[in-house]
Amino acid sequence: MSSDAQPDQLDEEILSSVGELIGQILAHGESLAQRHSFPTFFLKALHTLDCPMAMKELGRRLHCDPSFVTVIADGLEKRGLARREAHPGDRRVKNIVLTDEGHRLRDRVQRELAASMPWSRVLNRQEREILLALIRKMTAAESAAAPAPAASPSGPVAAVEEVDGDLKAAATAPR
Question: What is the mean pLDDT of residues 145-156?
Answer without folding.
Answer: 53
